[in-house]
Amino acid sequence: MHECPFERAVKKKHFVLLKMFKIIIIWFWRRKISISLLASGIILVGLWSWAYLETSQKYPQSYKSANSVDEAVEDSNQSQSYRNLFVLQKLISDANRVLSSHQNRARSVKRNLLSPSTRTNIASKDSSGSAVVVKEASAQTLSLVARRKKAPVVGESLFFEEERLRILENQQRAKNSAMEDIQMIDEEARTLTSEERQIQYEHELQRMGVPVIAGIGPETGKAPKERLVHLDLKGAPAKITFLKQLLTMLKTLGATGLLIEYEDMFPFEGPLANLSATNAYKKEELKDFLETCALHGFTIMPLVQTFGHLEYALKLQEFSAMREIPESPQSICPSRKESMDFLEELLRQVIEFHLQFVNESTTTLKMTHIHIGCDEVYRIAECSLCRVKLKDQIFLDHVMAMAHFIRSHWQQLNVLIWDDMLRPMSLTKLQTSLIGNYVQPMIWVYTTDIYASISPTLWERYAQVFSTVWAASAFKGAWGESLMIPPLQRHLENNIRWLAVMNKEGGRFSKGFQGLVLTGWQRYDHFAILCELLPAAIPSLITTLSTVSKGYFSTNPKDNGLLKVLQCYFHPDSRRSGHPWIELHNNSHHSQLFSSCSYLGSQFYQFSLRLYDKLAEIQMYLHHVQDKSAWMSTYNLRHNFSSILIVKAKTEQTQLFLQELITLSKEAEQLLYHIYDKYTIGEFVEQHIYPTILALQTNLANATALSQARHWPRRPLPIAQAMYDLQMLADAPKTIVHDTIH
Q1: What whole-number distance in Å separates Cα of residue 612 and Cα of residue 689?
Q2: pLDDT tens, 593-613?
Q3: pLDDT one-digit tens code per residue, 372-414
Q4: Among the options 376, 660, 669, 683, which is catalytic?
Q5: Rounded to an integer, what distance in angstroms lies between the CA atom of residue 266 and that of residue 280?
Q6: Is residue 345 annotated as part of the catalytic site, yes or no?
Q7: What is the pTM of this model?
Q8: Distance, CA of 75 to CA of 267 (rounded, Å)
Q9: Domain of 429?
Q10: Do residues 259 and 172 both lie within one domain?
């Protein structure tokens, strides 16, 4: 039977297609490793692109300094390059593992082909469609084929391995370069003279914005023997859990003890029970806190006011009879017997509580001093019993009486007082009183010029009366009674200047300076509003404390104790970025170091920065809309005379600002919940946020009132009668022009 031409053509076409298909299969089989390598390369590029995009989204460049945006971007880009380099190394390692797997698979194929039990004959068809039997391949031929197929795999594998090694070499080269720079700097420092090293040190301080004080540096700095941190708890008690965390940080930075001012936060009992605030600490809480202080080896120095600043007691009716003058509870009358009985009971309860804890504690709590205040006694020698005596004599007699009471009951305790009331007294008066045998003065100056308050003459006078003295600087609560964030640079300069003064004046006293106390006032007095909250002042505290503990500000980030308590996303190193690792120029509270790193209280500090900026923005807005406005001034409001369209346009942002402040209030409550009780949180919000909310609400109400009018009078508008009543203008005209509508 003969095939028709059409069938023959179809079969021939099928044969050609089948042969092409076999050729393609054989081609792919012979080049399977190359194709796998190509596919791996494509996958590698895809994975690298995905990793780059994923990393960019996960680590946005969000750490920007309010002072210096360029530095933050550079640090962020540097960190980004490190992450990309790590991802690239990871992908290369994965690719090497894929290629190794292909090599193993190729070797297994080679073994299978060389095995007699697995060799097979390959059948195909010739051009006529007949079956062709291919003879069994020899072992030599298969070996040559296997070696030929293996070559490109090895070559590609070496390519990736060389790339990985090149990256590692670059990293090692960078490390070696950094080490060489450090060694070069060290060698240069060794070759410089002492004066040249000091000049270099001061130059670096200027770059950082750190105050440069003559005589303070790595070779001349000397840390005080005692470094105490003041905890002012009056009216704003931080939770014990927060304070215990604070202790760990203070210990790390070199603090040796605490000056604790309880005021109405102490759990008084008996006849003094009403002195305690309703949210005062419980005895169990204070015992827990003091036990933690003992574990850290801290010295505890209670501060109990015994002359001035007794508002928290004398404000109450039951103690008002002890006031120096009836209208002011600021100071107590020292000439009344009930006053002395009250003060002795006050001291007894505080001292006995601490000493009892010391005796019961398994670990020794150090308590060698008691501070009895006696600063800023504004009203003295004014009552009928006191005015017959001189002011200085009344003060000295009262201090001596308090010191004698303490020393007669607790001989192991030394008595401290603030020094400001002693400054105007003459040398003869101080020596005659023998006050130097009973108390140690704590000299406090919180400004940047110590000698403006304590002159060399006064230093010499103190040295002839007292064998030893203390110094007191500040880390908050000294540059404004209602600040939200302390000016870090000013506090740092105050502490560094104190270091210089202590080095210079310590030799005047036979026993030198006992130590330095970093005060952190919470209120200027009992009736004042809050100063900076403690968590917002942590950057100032850790900067000043680390400096005081070292005796100078270290410009080397690895040698500065400040970085021991900071958890930074970036690496503060000026050698890499070319910029100082810390910058404390104007608006120093916007430093990137504290707004980007994590530490105790960092979230509230960063919140305070945002709140500060938002309040400043709103105040500027209200000033522009109301005070400088020609359509919403007090004149417009008194006469209800303005343009409705302009009023609406000017106040369209008011509602938005209101919502933002309400949101910030809720955020403040959330952040402070674990630090303060609800009363302190409420006071902070009411003090810093609520007044601006009221101003915005008033702005909205004024805009609404001005927008109600639909008809307006003819000019001139009437003159305010109040100005005539105050005789600001001549008498009002007898004839008053009334508006008439024609």
Answers
A1: 10
A2: 888 889 999 999 999 999 999
A3: 999 999 999 999 999 999 999 999 999 999 999 999 999 999 9
A4: 376
A5: 6
A6: no
A7: 0.74
A8: 50
A9: 226-550+559-565
A10: no
